[in-house]
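Good morning,

Attaching, inline, the backbone tokens for the sequence recovery test we're adding to the shared suite. The designed sequence is right after.
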């Protein structure tokens, strides 16, 4: 495992972190297997774990707290997120801060997350959705500063909405934000245009999420794939998106080098970008942990291949099915 500096916070974090959304709420999750996978990740050097209150209404946070207590001799970095009060993902430009993150509500859910985690503090507290229109509203500034001053959180982050990487740049320029979480993968390359340069300028850490486009870049989906009702992927890979996505995957497949796999290619594409502090694939099984972490030890992709991969950029805008 290789490590990178987490922006101005200066943490040394594993470049392959652990995304914990799929551990609570996705079909096919098994709690015992989840704990085995998490332990394997720690054994292999992973030290950054990203969760949220909304992942199972605190269940994923409780699992992370158990992990931290089970490995008291290791420095494990914890990140969680305050859910929007109106429970709407993504947020919309017409939403007011009072509808989504009123100050008292921010503190309430920060304390709720700490209770779920069973920890005295969380390293990174993020807003689970965001709108740049809220950037200069000093009410959220004050409550987050208070939480930091009280030692309840170590850093402040925003998780920007899907396919809106620019919708957070003015917030970064307030100087308050330590980390930004954004979708970045072979298809979703748009953060490179505006967001990443600002993060470099301000020394804001980048957390790359959704490295496999919710599963399409694992190579396991087909045009006949269906997910059970209630599973987010049943909506995301509905009729509007599954066919076009598989067309893109089919076009990408010939670029996978001999002896490699599509998910390995997807991970190494992201790790090639030094603006990324850590990438957080979802890993529900120990074998997934081993395969994804191995990407950290792999050599850099050939520049000619990287150039070809850039041609597979797919610029999209938010849709009703893309929350």
């Amino acid at each position: 495992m290789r490590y990178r500096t987490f922006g101005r916070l200066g943490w040394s974090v594993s470049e392959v972190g652990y995304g914990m959304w799929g551990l609570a709420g996705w079909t096919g999750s098994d709690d015992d297997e989840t704990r085995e996978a998490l332990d394997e990740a720690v054994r292999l050097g992973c030290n950054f774990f990203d969760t949220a209150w909304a992942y199972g209404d605190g269940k994923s946070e409780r699992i992370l707290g158990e992990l931290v207590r089970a490995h008291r001799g290791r420095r494990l970095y914890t990140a969680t997120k305050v859910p929007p009060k109106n429970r709407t993902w993504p947020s919309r430009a017409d939403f007011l801060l009072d509808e989504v993150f009123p100050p008292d509500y921010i503190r309430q859910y920060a304390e709720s997350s700490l209770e779920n985690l069973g920890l005295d503090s969380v390293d990174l507290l993020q807003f689970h959705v965001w709108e740049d229109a809220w950037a200069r509203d000093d009410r959220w500034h004050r409550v987050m500063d208070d939480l930091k001053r009280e030692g309840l959180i170590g850093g402040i982050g925003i998780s920007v909405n899907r396919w809106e990487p620019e919708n957070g740049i003015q917030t970064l320029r307030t100087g308050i934000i330590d980390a930004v979480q954004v979708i970045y993968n072979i298809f979703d390359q748009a953060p490179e245009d505006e967001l990443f340069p600002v993060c470099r300028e301000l020394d804001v850490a980048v957390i790359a999420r959704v490295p496999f486009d919710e599963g399409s870049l694992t190579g396991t989906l087909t045009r006949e794939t269906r997910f059970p009702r209630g599973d987010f992927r049943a909506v995301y890979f509905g009729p509007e998106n599954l066919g076009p996505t598989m067309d893109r995957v089919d076009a990408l497949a010939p670029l996978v080098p001999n002896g490699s796999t599509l998910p390995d290619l997807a991970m190494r594409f992201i790790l090639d970008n030094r603006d990324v502090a850590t990438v957080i694939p979802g890993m529900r099984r120990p074998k997934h942990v081993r395969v994804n972490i191995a990407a950290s030890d792999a050599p850099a992709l050939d520049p000619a291949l990287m150039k070809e991969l850039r041609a597979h950029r797919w610029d999209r805008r938010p849709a009703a099915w893309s929350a």
